[in-house]
Amino acid sequence: MESQTVEQFETEVKRYGVDVVHASREDVTETIAERIKPPAVGVSLAGDGIDPPEGVTTEPTPTELDEAVTGVTRASLGIASYGSIALRTDDQGSEPISLFTEHHIAVLEEADIVADMPESFDWLGDELRSTRDSVVLATGPSATADMGALVQGAHGPKTVDIILVS
Amino acid sequence: MSSETRTSKAEHIRRIMETEGDAVGENTRGFNEGRYESVAKLEDYESLKDEARAIKEDAIERLPELIDQLTDTIEENGGTVYIAEDEADANQYIEQVCTDQDADRVIKSKSMTSEEIEVNGHLQSAGMEVVETDLGEWVLQVADEAPSHIVAPAIHKSRAEIATLFNEYFEPEERLETAEELTMFAREKLLEKIKGADVGMTGANFLTADSGTMALVTSEGNARKTVTVPDTHIAVAGVEKVVPSVEDLQPFIELIGRSGTGQDITSYISLFTPPVDSPTVDFDDPDTPITAGENDREFHLVLIDNGRMAMREDDELRETLYCIRCSACSNTCANFQSVGGHAFGGETYSGGIATGWEAGVHGLDTAAEFNDLCTGCSRCVEACPVEIDIPWINTVVRDRVNSENDVKVDWLVDGLTPDTETDGPGIQKRLFGNFETLAKVGSAFAPLSNWVANSAPSAMVLERVAGVDRRRDFPAFRRQTLRKWFADHTSPTPRGDYDVVLYPDPYTNHMLVERGKAAVKLLEALGANVVIPEVSGSGRAPLSQGMIDTARSKAESVTSELRPYVEDGYDIVVVEPSDLAMFTGDYEHLLPDEAFEPLAANSYEVVEYAYGMVSNGADIEALNRADGDETIAYHSHCQQRTMGLETYTTTLLEKRGFDVTTSDAECCGMAGSFGYKEQYYDLSIDVGENLEAQLREMDADYVVASGTSCTDQIEDLLESDALHPVELLAPPE
């Protein structure tokens, strides 16, 4: 991954008030833990070789989901020119976990950042046709201006952290 | 339209401007400025628009095939597709799905198509609770009002009004005041509704035939909750939303937020391939992990025809189906900025493109209610991400509305209206549509005709009979027309490199003769050989009244009169931008290509032409130069800006030492005859006040504008003279 693309991704993401935190594979569990505001729910990141941070409830009940402040999920892709991340829905509940909580922590591999929208759709096209999965391109926190001024946290998260794993 | 109808229409518009105008104006202008800033960041904006346009053209062309493919794909994915012929059919199906689920509560995310079929009322009368979860829609549900904007439905309500509404309706313990407080209150209230929902209903911005994916463009996250929480998902979408593949979404995703609310991208672009693989969140079973049970979601796509397949067969309305409902045409429209969708809208849709939608899905009657509010200024054309010729759709619908009205021909107007309309556009439209004849008579009898037209009794008769607002002065006709003056004038330059036909439009020829003389002097000073033959009116006036047959016969006259000159190597130079827009744009709709193309290729705006001559080596020093640091407040003409010609004027004026400041008002509000019409006078002035404020703020030595309407309006508002740029550039005597 070209460092220029990563830099651009960070610049764009920050425009939406999203924090980007760099982590190596070794310290990623600890980095996530530091950003958590308890109680937290999340998905297992074992598939990515990441140990679960303490205090994160996986496979939550509706009550745990409702009471959680932080949700930890992974992002499949970053789009540098927009500062967007691709959140894939799955049977672990990534979608409600990233949506119901006030604070969303998304874990993204630096190598999964693409330059622009055409490049991301090259990936999405093949992926959606073959898997028939669903993906949300999320850019910044949930927002609305319907009440007369821009407010973050309309129905979804008020704040978002992206943990960038190198 | 009768005198009484005009008065009540004027009253309706006035009331809306008073109650909603400020909030609508502030919000739409904000979106519009955001659009300019956001699209400027795209290097390939124009090619993205071309791409988006091509995808829609292809998809609508192949629509039946794509609908079949989409149906197969969704069934393969485990969902159901129902194609509803009309509103009743759709509502019946949706009700059945809900009844099968024993649904008590349906939650919805924002969908204009669901507004079109009025599904909320239908389900409510079947005993179900329907909750809008988009905050703007929810405000309207609480207030029991209709959307005033297709993207931001509560745009007509200020924060203070929403606070009052919530405080009175919900009586919260602590009074709500800030946007943050209102939003968090709504979030909590709606979360409770979402938790107990049985069915979630969404729209769909796009549907991909290859994967069965629906794109939802949102910012709040309510659509995600609507899809994720309940186990039954109904999506309601017009058949035109289908595109071939996932990759086809890319240009739209890049354009839709920028074009609409001026956001580079909205917070969430959901690409759901339902039934989604996410576990449902059953709050009735709060202590069982959401991942525990089987995922047995139901998904129903209700594709709505409701007139769309007929629109597809209609050569003039087909383009409407390319619309992605971004709202750019609303936000950029000067009239919409003043009144919003409660005046500039029909049963469901609002803004410029709404004429096409309403005519197609609800019928001509509802389109007729607001279609006149499109003045044809064309500012929406460059704003539209799928390049729809929205003014043309408005013109076509106006023509069809005219055809439905059987108006008795009035003796007074008939002599002045030798049009070729076979049906009745009404007296007011015919009077303005036949302005050319009016101008000829006016000049022949000037100055008597001016005294008569502007005398108090005439003004009253004109207002009562034809709806010409008495507060407007009729333009003064000149006895010595530009052509008469030119007949006695000797051209200093023989034929050579720049042979020019200066097009004598009726305004320049009969009224604004000084600017015509200045145009001649300017072109001759730079070395052009100028002729001014007799040429018909361009047809702009009848076209703006929806009199397409008359406009076409004008177009035919103009092209046959100018053809010998074009073939002989003359360039056609035009003073009035709206006439140039006819020659280079509208004529394409009216004439065969072989008549349209040569004229379009050889026509220029007057300052654009002068700029070209200077760039090719003509002596710029022959032109007038600013005396010291003279300043200009400049308002370009709306159509001139759409054609991209503003820059020639500002650059040339600056090269001659003037300090030019330009307005960013989209239109002056006069827009041809619009501001003369009794029922629209107040709106025209309201639109003009935005420009007036900017021009006053500039406090320049000269106020300059490039169109007749603009200078008329500016003179009425500022009560001082406004010049055409050529009057400052032409060499002094």
Question: Can you describe this structure?
Answer:
The complex is a heterodimer of chains A (166) and B (733). Chain A has 166 residues and is α/β, with parallel strands linked by helices. Chain A contains five helices and twelve strands. In chain A, the strands form three sheets. Chain A has a six-stranded parallel beta sheet with strand order 1-12-7-4-2-3, sandwiched between helices. In chain A, strands 8-5-6-9 form a four-stranded mixed beta sheet, with helices on both faces. A two-stranded antiparallel sheet of chain A has the order 10-11. In chain A, a hairpin with a 6-residue loop joins β10 and β11. Chain A is globular, with a radius of gyration of 15 Å. Chain B has 733 residues and is an alpha/beta fold. In chain B, the strands form four sheets. Chain B has a six-stranded parallel beta sheet with strand order 1-10-7-4-2-3, sandwiched between helices. A four-stranded mixed beta sheet of chain B has the order 8-5-6-9, with helices on both faces. The relative contact order of chain B is 0.09. About 1% of the residues of chain B have low confidence. Chains A and B meet through α3, α4, α5, β9 and β10 of A and α7, α8, α9, α10 and α11 of B. β9 of chain A pairs antiparallel with β9 of chain B.
